[in-house]
Structures are given as structure tokens and as C-alpha cells.
Design goal:
Blueprint lengths: L2 H14 L13 H14 L2 H28 L1 H5 L5 E4 L5 E7 L4 H16 L3 E7 L5 H13 L6 H11 L5 H10 L4 H8 L2 H17 L6 E4 L2 E4 L4 H12 L3
Parallel strand pairs: 2-3
Antiparallel strand pairs: 1-3, 2-4, 4-5
Helix pairs in contact: 1-2, 6-7, 6-9, 6-10
């Protein structure tokens, strides 16, 4: 927390507001201002909680506005980038976008609830955005997943699910899982070296930055950015609110 900034702001407020017998602002030096502010805050410590709450509220509002603007300006990249995997109903009436990292514990936690959501609600379209941010293994897993799409069918989805279910995910595990779901591992490794794969990851990172996504999982629905893991009820409420225009 930027306490010094708070002290400066509080000092300015005290200077500009007539309080008892405070000397005129022009006659006060820095030390005097800091002494007055310190004494005031010690006498009224609850004001710090108010200031912190106000700052957090302003930051949240600023982040929400940035996300709303970013979403509006990048709809094509969000919904039709040509490479992000689409799960659920491709013609669903509600689209949920997830930015995720294969080594993210919260992404692994939300996986089953997302599957359940799509099984219970045939109107959900889920777009998956590979956003490796945690480690080199995360990056390698994302490249492998993107390259797996070249082998068609439901292999990407099986691979995606299996990697999120894995207890540990290092380089060896990625290819063991790939083989286990039926991917041609030799072809996969070759396809991963295509510069287009790396470019897709870079595009997703750039998109996340424009919207204000700074962690995983992060969901986008309508014009809202919803950071963090949601449970089954939270996901259902999110979809129902969007469907009802809320």
C-alpha cells in the first residue's frame, strides 16, 4: 500500500482545510506537515481503512472500465481469431471466454465445473485462450496444445483435459499425455516448431494485456472481465445473468 502517497494526500487536505489553529500552509515546511499528518492519523487510525477501501474501489472501477473498453475494441480477436479452440456449442447463445495456463492450480480446479456447465447447458459456447504465464513448462504445454489442433478430431480437447488433470506437468509429462490421448508425438513436436504457433501465443498475450488480464483463470462474458476461479454455481450464475441481459 502506498502509505507515503496517503500521507501526502492527507497532509494536503489538512493544509487546505481550516482546522483549529493550524499555521498557514505557506509557513509550514515538510517536517511540520508530516508531523501534523502523523498526529492526525495516530488520533484517527480508522481513516486509513477508509482510504484503503476508497483506493481499492477506484482501482477496481478503473480496471473494469479498462476491461470494458478493451473488450469492445478487440472483439474480433476475442471471438474470431481463427485459432482458439471452441468447446461446447459453437452456435451457443452465450459465449464464455477463458484465459488459462495448464500449470495453474485454479485453472485445473475450474476444469471439471466448466465441463459440467457445458453438459448441463447446451447453449454455452466456450472459447479457450492459451495464456502461459507461470513457467517454461506452461509455455511448452501451450505450444503443444496449439499444435495438436493440426491432428484434427477431438484430440485437442482430450489433450487439453488430460493436461489440466495431470498432477505434475513437465516436459516429459506433456508428451506422455499426448501419446496417451492418441496424438502422433513426432508430428506434434515438428508442428510445435512452426513460427505460427509462437505467434498465436504472442497474440493472446497482447490481447490479455489490452483487456487487463493479469492472471489465470480469467473469464470474459459480454463486456465483463471476471478474474479468478469460479465454482459451478458461479459459472452458472454468470451465464444466466448474461442470457437475461444482466
Amino acid at each position: 500500500m502506498r502509505l507515503n502517497a496517503f500521507l501526502r494526500a492527507a497532509g494536503t487536505a489538512l493544509i487546505l482545510t481550516p482546522v483549529g489553529a493550524l499555521p498557514a500552509a505557506a509557513e509550514m515546511d515538510r517536517a511540520e506537515v508530516e508531523k501534523i499528518v502523523r498526529e492526525y492519523l495516530l488520533a484517527n487510525p480508522e481513516i486509513l481503512n477508509e482510504m484503503i477501501a476508497e483506493l481499492q474501489e477506484r482501482e477496481q472501477m478503473s480496471a473494469a472500465e479498462k476491461a470494458k473498453t478493451g473488450i469492445a475494441q478487440n472483439k474480433e480477436a476475442l471471438y474470431n481469431d481463427g485459432f482458439s479452440h471452441v468447446a461446447g456449442n459453437p452456435n451457443g447463445d452465450v459465449t464464455l471466454i477463458e484465459f488459462f495456463d495448464y500449470r495453474c492450480g485454479y485453472c485445473r480446479k475450474v476444469r471439471a465445473d466448466l465441463v459440467t456447465l457445458m453438459e448441463q447447458d447446451s447453449g454455452v459456447r466456450l472459447i479457450l485462450k492459451e495464456l502461459p504465464i507461470l513457467s517454461e513448462a506452461s509455455h511448452e504445454a501451450a505450444k503443444a496444445a496449439i499444435a495438436a489442433q493440426n491432428q484434427g478430431g477431438d484430440l485437442y480437447w482430450k489433450f487439453h483435459q488430460a493436461m489440466l488433470e495431470a498432477d505434475g506437468l513437465d516436459s516429459a509429462a506433456i508428451y506422455d499425455i499426448a501419446a496417451g490421448v492418441g496424438l502422433d508425438v513426432a508430428r506434434l513436436k515438428t508442428d510445435m516448431e512452426d513460427p505460427a504457433v509462437e505467434k498465436k501465443i504472442e497474440q493472446t498475450h497482447d490481447l490479455a494485456s489490452k483487456i487487463g488480464v493479469d492472471g489465470t483463470p480469467a473469464f470474459i462474458i459480454g463486456d465483463k472481465l471476471v478474474p479468478g476461479a469460479l465454482d459451478a454455481d458461479g459459472l452458472k450464475e454468470l451465464v444466466e445473468a448474461q442470457r437475461s441481459g444482466g
